[in-house]
User: Fold this.
Amino acid sequence: MVAIIVLLTSATAQKKINPGEVWPDDKGNHIQAHGGGIVKIDKYYYWYGEQRRQGLDTGLRYVSCYRSKDLASWQFMGDALQLSDPEHLGSNWVLERPKVYFNRKTKTYVMYFHLDDARYKLARVGVATSNKPEGPFTYRESFRPLEKESRDIGQFIDDDGTAYLVFESWPTKGFFIARLSDDYLKVEKEVCLINAPLEGGAIVHYKGLYYAIGSALTGWNPNPNKYATAKSLEGPWSEFKDIAPPETNTYSSQSTMMLKVEGTKDTTVIFMADQWKPKTQWDSRYLWMPLQTGDGKLWLPEPKPWSIDIKTGKVQF
Ligand code: GAL
Assistant:
């Protein structure tokens, strides 16, 4: 009898995700995976992001790696990338918004990140690879994808497994969706330019429709993030609309990714965003919330604690 009760309680009590709160990892430290992305490989979700803890070597830039089976409890796997200025960019050089793809053919983990100088004039992606998810990743090179300026990057893997890089382009005002090469080491083909002055681009494919989210260009300050839809990645894309009441500035957050969890009962799309604290970046928070999505509409409900059952895909508040 006792065993049954224990089983029942553990089945119903999923660990909560608390948007905007300190999010302790397995060692009790606030998770450092800012501007991050998530990739699921077999039974684990891997979360990579900007490592911004206090006391780091200021000459280096770091990408952290965490893993989880339930999206709520995260184990710190260490700093997957530790990089010294790879292109003589000078002090305050920038490595932001890392994203990792796993190439099943080459069994290689391929990391992309925004690489820049202090004035954001270089506008390139950097590429690093590893044969293990937790790294160490080795720097390979940097380039401008499709010869275009590239700043904020986003990651999108379609249901058929095709991998895309989303990158923000200032001169053309918008973000490109570009297909990666077979080995993921190059950005091969322009699929679309979403022609709206947005960054922090995120895409999800949900029930036959593509949804794209982006934020306005206000640096670390939050703004009303917007979404558009299209039947095909090539477009045409609809007008952009608010994802939340505009006066909340997306509940003080900026988009970084949408993560789709396909369970046995429900498919849930999670909005992953950063609540930046530019002066104390190590304390920047995460706003993760299940989106209300469907029939061409997308809405970010007011943040509150929630949990997800990864098996069924069901969300509870
Ligand atoms: C934001 C961007 C961040 C970071 C910041 C610097 O617009 O999304 O990743 O680059 O500007 O001001």
DSSP finds two helices and 23 strands in the chain. Residues 35, 96-97, 152, 199-200, 217, 219-220, 254 surround beta-D-galactopyranose (CB under 6 Å). The helical segments are 2-12, 249-252.
